[in-house]
Amino acid sequence: MSLKPLYDRVVVRRIEAQTTTKAGIIIPDNAAEKPTEGEVIAVGDGVITDSGKTQPLLVKPGDRILFGQYSGSKVKVDNEELLIMKESDILAIVENQRLEEKAA
User: Does the residue 3 lie in any domain?
Assistant: First the structure.
């Protein structure tokens, strides 16, 4: 990919939500909400502070994140739909995916 975000921007690939519930009920595409979980693909260099220094971002490529449903701007790169958003639009970093799977 040849997409490099600027400053505090982040490029995110949505992680598709499951189309069936735990009980086995299939959710049709038109009833499903857009997923609010994604994987960070690329990050900018960081925010320039008032003193002129660059403060690096907290997220890094490969992180799984949670973001608001209407966050970011859609872009299409190599026939893939990605989101570009500010780091402040990111709600959380998902740290231990395996613990959540064991609990379910």
Answer: no
Residue pair 57/43 in contact by the 8 Å Cβ criterion: yes
Closest CA relative to residue 6, chosen from 57, 49, 44, 52: 44
Q: Is the pLDDT of residue 97 over 70?
A: no
CA–CA distance, 39 with 63 (Å, rounded to integer)? 6
Position 2 in a domain = no
The CATH code of the domain that includes 41 is: 2.30.33.40
Which residue range forms the structural domain that includes residue 34? 9-103
Domains held by the chain: number: 1
The label of the residue with tokens 């995110």 reads 12
pLDDT tens digits, one per residue of 16-71: 766 665 666 666 555 455 668 899 999 999 988 899 898 999 999 999 999 988 88
